[in-house]
Amino acid sequence: MIEAKDLTKKFGQQLVFENLNFKINDGDFISLIGPNGSGKTTLVKIMMGLEKKTSGELSLDNKQSIGYVPQFRNIDLDYPLNIEQFIRLNLKFTFSPTKKRENDELIKNILEKTGLTQLKNRPLGLASGGEKQKAYLAQALLNDPKVLILDESTASLDVEVKMQLMDLVQELNQKYNLTVIFITHDYELTKKYTSRALFFQNKTIKEVNVSDISEEMFEMGG
Ligand SMILES: Nc1ncnc2c1ncn2[C@@H]1O[C@H](COP(=O)(O)OP(=O)(O)OP(=O)(O)O)[C@@H](O)[C@H]1O
């Protein structure tokens, strides 16, 4: 479980958000929505320990690890790694034959889980947007995180490819009780896939029913 109590963040004099109070339970598929600049990425960076809170509390189960999938940016056509090699970047290098075998097994499993087995030798630079995004997802899942954060991960994909990626994430959520935190500006995907929603507004956060979400919530001033 992840729990925030009066969580506040400032950058210098700039207040990003104050007094956030919420709980995210194991196995939740929850969206973080709100306008540009309202603090969604800053909040997940605090969860991942990449940014410091200013005050309040944020507690995470100690054993809980977090996988993070950003929106993919352009990768050069001549990027030197293929899909499997790219995923392997998240493994610790080892000289131990036993560890090597364990790593190979991990890679094999994750390629299967994400439907990338047939594509493992494809150079990442030549992969489609959806394939690249799956490779990011596979890399994030490699160390068996309990929480997966998708940070606008579907933003640059076609509708059909977005749905495929989300179907895969939904399957992982249901099969492995993976907690999914979905940062998005996509109204349709929020409605279709998430069961809870946290909405950033007026420098704080409130829970809204997914059925009450409107398109304006993605645009209104923060
Ligand atoms: N390292 C930083 N230093 C100073 N200000 C920052 C820093 N990171 C973010 N900010 C500011 O904090 C505010 C929240 O940014 P954040 O990226 O968390 O918003 P967001 O809700 O994720 O936005 P978007 O939907 O556009 O991705 C913005 O005003 C941003 O400019």
UniProtKB/TrEMBL annotation:
Residues 2-220 form the ABC transporter domain. SUPFAM superfamilies: P-loop containing nucleoside triphosphate hydrolases. GO terms for molecular function: ATP binding; ATP hydrolysis activity. Coiled coil: none annotated. Belongs to the ABC transporter superfamily. Keywords: ATP-binding, Nucleotide-binding, Transport. Pfam families: ABC_tran (PF00005). InterPro entries: AAA+_ATPase, ABC_transporter-like_ATP-bd, Metal_Ion_Import_ABC, P-loop_NTPase. It comes from the Bacteria. This is ATP-binding cassette domain-containing protein. The keyword Transport applies. It comes from Companilactobacillus halodurans.
